[in-house]
Amino acid sequence: KETIKIALEMPVKGTSPQMILEGLVTMHGRITPIMGGGTVKSASGLIEIDATKLGFEMNKGMVKKTTSMPMTFSLDFDGTENDLRIKNADVRFHEIALNAKGVVTLQPAQAVKMEVKTTALPLASLEQIVPMLKEYALGGNGSLFVTAEGPVAKISAKGEFGISGGKVSYPAMLKGPLAFDLKTGFTENSFNLASFTVN
Fold first, then answer.
1. How many CB atoms lie within 10 A of CB 119?
2. pLDDT at residue 161 tops 90
3. Where are the alpha helices (DSSP H) in 32-126?
4. Which of 40, 46, 120, 126 is such that its CA lies 20 to 30 A from the CA of 143?
5. Chain centroid to CA 38: how far?
6. What is the pTM of this model?
7. What is the DSSP letter of 3?
8. How would residue 172 be classed by pLDDT, with cut points 50, 70 and 90?
9. Are the C-beta atoms of 182 and 162 separated by less than 8 Å?
10. pLDDT tens, position by position, 118-155
11. What is the dihedral of CA 80, 86, 87, 88, to 10 degrees?
12. 12 beta partners
């Protein structure tokens, strides 16, 4: 049983007709494998990736990320030959933050049991990622909660998505902004509009 420490720093640069990509990605981690009979029986660890200093632009600026926008991923896990337990997984992109926890079963049959949720997402922050949204002056906060469970071939999922204090403007067609609130529920094969109000 010995902890392996990982530290990587990788410059990234690339250009294509659809995307321009340039910046720096760093990764830190520690993994502790437990050996038995010459093979890895289990492992635990923490992996952190930081792509904040990575900037990109897609479709001629339709979607973009500056090198000052946070973009990070972290994974705290325990694993055996039979399953992977995700104690905590955090993803952040700009002001979007997502957290996941759960178990991925590898054998005797592949299955998942996961819970994913977001913090409050300020809709106004989206215009910094998608500049064309600026003219709509979005406001309010969005939230998402999803659970997924069952065998990989037939996963059962359910969740909720909502927007509170929503606001949208479109001066070319509307004299003033629309205010709205939205609450929905869904499964892997259904969608329920629980409430939707507009002023």
1. 14
2. yes
3. none
4. 46
5. 37
6. 0.87
7. P
8. confident
9. yes
10. 988 999 999 999 999 999 999 999 999 999 999 998 99
11. 150
12. 23
